[in-house]
Amino acid sequence: MGQKVYQMSVTFAIIKERKNPPDRRVVFSPEKCQEVIRQFPDAKIIVEASDVRIFPDDAYRKAGFEVKEDVSEADVMLGVKEVPIAALIPNKKYFFFSHTIKKQPYNKKLLQAILANKIELVDHETIVKKSGARLIGFGRYAGLVGAYNGFRALGLRDSLFELPKVETLADLDAMKAELDKITLPKHIKILLTGAGKVAHGAKEILEHLKVKKASITRYLSQKFDEPVYCMIDVLDYNKRKDGGESNKLEFYKDPSGYESDFMRFAKVTDYFIAGHYYGTGAPYLFTRKDAKQKDFNINLVADISCDVDGPVASTIKASTIADPFFGYDPKTEKETAFDAPGAITMMTVDNLPCELPKDASEGFGDMFLANVIPAFFNKDKAGVLARAQMTTKEGTLTKRFSYLEEYVSE
Ligand SMILES: NC(=O)c1ccc[n+]([C@@H]2O[C@H](COP(=O)([O-])OP(=O)(O)OC[C@H]3O[C@@H](n4cnc5c(N)ncnc54)[C@H](O)[C@@H]3O)[C@@H](O)[C@H]2O)c1
Q1: Name one GO molecular function term (predicted).
Q2: How far is the CA of 288 from the centre of ligand 1 (A)?
Q3: What spacing in Å lies between the alpha carbon of 310 and ligand 1's midpoint?
Q4: Whole-angstrom Cα distance, residue 238 to residue 219?
């Protein structure tokens, strides 16, 4: 970031979340704020008063932090979701998820306002290693809640058990305690796609339930007397059209030479947990036509990746925390009741980590403290801030984000 960032003392503000429905998450819990100060005595933290945050204002006061209505004295504003244009403070540095890096039309005005207000923006999504791998995010919590929600749908639909909604539970431990009370159907086969934070979060739930992991060969060919899951990555569910050898980096770069090889899994799977990252132009895992096939066996999907009208054809919409389940009728290609006969039961909540605000905030704070805060006090020696910064104090886009020029000038 600009020169000022490397000053010896930096004041951070934990800002209030202003999106609706309210997001209860925060970058740093009161305890994590104390840890920041312990590790970096030149850091100062102030807190903007909030009535929605999972940790009450009083908890920050008790931990020794000032809670204020006006935090404009801070150098760096730390938030989670988009800051409404009216609440932006000019000439500050901000961290939040802006949802602009894929040129999302609904946030174009926000990025324009950020530039006009000469704000230096770092989007949490842009905080990456040199290799491009993301350093921080809520993916693990999306995986945990998404996999749980799928089991909750199964229990309700087939009258097997009743799991409470995650948002009614205190934390991850309480969620796991609920899972300890259920028994899964003996022959259920579960497929999990992905290799990142989401997929590993979902895997934690499967492992907590003691679901056995099966290799691809065994999963595809055998019947089991106990619940099993199989975890697959891009080259397992895609193959080269010319029959040649597949290559992951080649696939990431240009997937046009590949086609889906997902149906072999769809034929034997009951519950599909989608936790993959879908790159533009990649083959769809399954299409609406595939879902009509007699041997398409999947009847429950927790689509955590949640690309609407995309690679998971039955994801015809994102669902909400309030109303998380719906049915997809493969025959009519339309929405139906989540428990309608012949329907694929769908769970497509797109803000899953919000259901677990305490754990999600604590986990996020750990990553932010380890990977971002040091950069303010070590002259950004790992280049984290330099790579991540999207806009400058002169009101321009940085080089890495110059591809957004057209988007912001329209
Ligand atoms: N529903 C929700 O609430 C929610 C919350 C968080 C994330 N998500 C979504 O879940 C998906 C996975 O997120 P994550 O946190 O696990 O991501 P991640 O960055 O941790 O992992 C992504 C994985 O995809 C791989 N990858 C990179 N480029 C790829 C490409 N072009 N094609 C295929 N794979 C590629 C990476 O090697 C990595 O293993 C994303 O689409 C994300 O938007 C949903």
Answers
A1: saccharopine dehydrogenase (NAD+, L-lysine-forming) activity
A2: 23
A3: 15
A4: 17
Best probe residue, ligand 1, of 192, 277, 284 (max atoms within 8 Å of C-beta): 277
Answer whether 404 contacts ligand 1 (Cβ < 6 A).
no
State the pTM of this model: 0.92
Amino acid at 237: Y
User: Could you tell me the CATH number of the domain that includes residue 271?
Assistant: 3.40.50.720
Q: Are residues 389 and 294 in the same domain?
A: no
Q: Specify the amino acid at residue 195.
A: A
| Whether residue 385 sits in one domain with residue 341 | no
Which structural domain range is residue 88 located in?
Answer: 3-135+372-409
- Distance from residue 207's CA to the centre of ligand 1 (Å): 20
* DSSP type of residue 169: S
With pLDDT > 90 as the criterion, what percentage of the chain qualifies?
96
Q: Is 137 in a helix, a strand, or coil?
A: coil
pLDDT digits over 45-79, tens only?
999 999 999 999 999 999 999 999 999 999 999 99
Q: Confirm whether 57 is domain-assigned.
A: yes
Number of domains in the chain: 2
Which is nearest to 226 in space by CA: 184, 268, 182, 270? Answer: 184
